[in-house]
Amino acid sequence: MKHYTPAIDESKKLIQIRDLHKSFGELHVLRGIDLDLYQGENLVVLGRSGTGKSVLIKIICGLLQADMGRIEVLGNDINNLSAKQWQELRLKLGFSFQNSALYDSMTVKENLEFPLVRNVPGISRKEKEKAIEEVLEGVGLSQAINQMPSELSGGQRKRIGIARTLIMRPEIMLYDEPTAGLDPITCIEINSLISFVQERFKTSSIIITHDLTCAKATGDRIMMLLDGRFARQGTFEDVFNTDDERVKTFYNYNFID
To answer: Least buried of 18, 52, 136, 166, by fewest C-beta within 10 Å?
Structure first.
């Protein structure tokens, strides 16, 4: 489904995680995981709901704190960042929330302006308009600029959420269940958009999903999370070429031909 070969540089690790643990009381969610994200790569973290996939990316962007482990993001040890350093780092991370996280009282244009006004002091009107025009064109929704979120479909809201993230030109995109709640045709469109964003905006991404169609369409490499650990990794075919019943059951449930 991908239309080009991504330029992945395995000598450049944008995210490095070693021996990461996270528990909530007696519930051990992450049990010592290792992960590398390479420059230019779309990395899919695949697993059933409740396996800790979203916990992982919330730790990466500082919304949750790990119990143990080393996490480096763009060369920064996130366990030792000041509030100001975190603020600077977050501008380089784009977080595409599962629910798109748009402000219902703002138009599409105002939603896209908000992060610019907040984070780019002194930005001119012309610069704002150019940035908005470029990201809307990038997600294929230039015509929606004056619409309210309530007037958009679920897929369109997802696209605008991605556009609002892209407007700050992040180096890393974090997608949390990008196809959740969408119809099959819209899922295909969002999968294509994720690959297009990788090419057009030169992003590296972690894509959290339990959707095998999304994983197969968007992932340059797939890591499968089972019982708090990464049990399989590689291409889609590598991951599912196994006799592990946990993996086979997951595959069969998704009805992938």
So the answer is: 18
